[in-house]
Design goal:
The chain is mostly helical. It is 79% helix and 0% strand. α5 runs parallel beside α7.
Length: 208
């Protein structure tokens, strides 16, 4: 116990509470990826971070709260990156593809990199389903807005396809979910996602 207490400054010194929390989340991410959610204890996370369990409990009540905080951070960063991609200048196809990649590719990479990927996906669905649903809803609105603007600019023809911007966005999002679930690797997911965006937008009259 004494040795763990002496290690605590690895995370704590000179850092604001928010920075200490981020460092703890980084440590938890490494622990979950290595041993899975079920086999990882609060003691394991504390050891990974170089802090005492007492210090860890100052920030998180249990490992479910840690996992939810990790999910919230991942989804927040992914959504911010996707919004930035959609706001860029240029044709809608490349922007939509970058947005979809930014939203999902990191999750695909994390699952593929861990021997406990399937368990982490199941845990995420069970513990963090509401977080994912809220971010998916926000992303769908951002994508629909970008498609609507592309239609107003004459780049795509939503009316000719009999689709609203929201319906077209939903098609892209739901299809990308299917690709994510079935892709054997991040590289394969990226290739299939590029094909999906190209084919769907070609159907809406986009060129290139």
């Amino acid at each position: 116990m004494e040795s763990r207490l002496r290690r605590e400054p690895e995370v704590a010194p000179g850092r604001a509470p928010a920075e200490r929390r981020e460092a703890l989340l980084d440590a938890a991410h490494a622990a979950f990826a290595r041993t899975g959610f079920r086999r990882t204890s609060m003691e394991d996370v504390a050891r990974e971070a170089g802090v005492s369990r007492a210090a860890l409990y100052l920030h998180f009540r249990n490992k479910e709260e840690i996992f939810r905080s990790l999910s919230e951070r991942l989804h927040r960063d992914a959504l911010a990156g996707a919004a930035e991609a959609l706001a860029e200048a240029g044709p809608i196809g490349p922007r939509a593809l970058r947005a979809l990649e930014t939203k999902s590719l990191r999750f695909v990479e994390l699952v593929a990199a861990s021997p406990h990927g399937a368990e982490l996906v199941e845990t995420s669905s069970r513990v963090c389903g509401d977080i994912a649903a809220a971010k998916e809803e926000r992303f769908a609105k951002l994508l629909a807005d970008a498609l609507r603007r592309a239609a107003e600019d004459g780049e795509i023809d939503l009316e000719g396809a009999g689709l609203s911007a929201a319906a077209a966005a939903e098609l892209l999002v739901q299809a990308s979910h299917g690709l994510k679930a079935s892709a054997a690797s991040p590289a394969l997911y990226r290739r299939r996602l590029a094909d999906l965006v190209r084919v769907l937008l070609a159907g809406l009259g986009a060129s290139g």
